[in-house]
Design goal:
The chain has 227 residues and is α+β, with helices and mostly antiparallel strands. It folds into two domains: 172 residues, Bira Bifunctional Protein, Domain 2 (BirA Bifunctional Protein, domain 2, 2-Layer Sandwich), CATH 3.30.930.10; 43 residues, Roll (SH3 type barrels), CATH 2.30.30. It contains four helices and eleven strands. α2 crosses α3.
């Protein structure tokens, strides 16, 4: 099965940017090599474009763009749709979309999976899935969402390069999942517990520990305490 990385490795020359679209995936992965089930009906894409390199903020920029795009099509869920640091979109406390950003041979490769018209499929009990189709009486257009998302991420990324992270940080602050909640941040070697205070100027998650000290973290998986 060909994926976006095979294309970069084996097909030359490539354009400045391109999109790989899958009807379904049998080997989709997320962060930390977690499996991602991508069955027929959902939106499964990788958007690749040439750039100097990715930063830890890139997934958050994508999250802002995807959140804004989805609100165009399901605006009535505004109060229930959130950006989960660092790379998920949450609806009704369930996972609607996931993001994976990797750098490959001079390209940033942005993998995005959105549960649109597909059947829900759960791999574990950590983050149950939700689909847009559960809220609409019609089949939503994946191609329309894709077009809007590509326009949004291009504009968001250009703004970031020209003006920095502040505008995206403000948007995340308004739409951050688990902000003000007691959370657990799990890394490869640690579990950090405390109060989620938001996202820093550099994109780090800020957690207030039991002593009241604010600490910044740049990687890991965030959960509500007790989940």
């Amino acid at each position: 099965m060909t994926d976006s990385y095979d294309i970069i490795n084996n097909i030359q020359p490539l354009p400045e940017s391109f999109v790989v679209i899958a009807d379904e995936q049998i080997g989709g992965v997320g962060r930390n090599n977690n499996q991602w089930v991508s069955n027929h009906g959902g939106l499964w894409i990788t958007y690749c474009f040439k750039t100097e390199g990715a930063s830890h903020q890139t997934a958050l920029l994508v999250g802002v763009s995807l959140h804004q795009t989805l609100l165009k099509y399901i605006p009535f869920v505004r109060e229930r749709l959130f950006i989960k640091w660092p790379n998920d979109i949450i609806l009704n406390k369930k996972k609607l979309a996931g993001i994976l950003v990797q750098a490959k041979h001079g390209y940033i490769c942005i993998g995005v999976g959105v549960n649109t018209n597909n059947e829900r499929f759960s791999l574990d009990g950590l983050q149950q899935p939700v689909c847009i189709s559960e809220f609409l009486p019609y089949v939503i257009s994946n191609s329309a969402i894709l077009k809007s998302f590509l326009n949004s991420i291009d504009a968001t990324y250009k703004n970031f390069l020209n003006n920095g992270f502040s505008k995206c940080r403000e948007y995340i602050a308004e739409n951050l999942y688990l902000r003000g909640e007691f959370v657990v941040l799990k890394t490869d070697s640690l579990e950090i517990r405390g109060l989620c205070k938001g996202v820093g100027h550099d994109g780090a998650i800020i957690i207030e520990d039991v002593s009241g000290e604010l600490k910044s973290y740049y990687s890991g998986s965030l959960f509500k305490s007790g989940e």
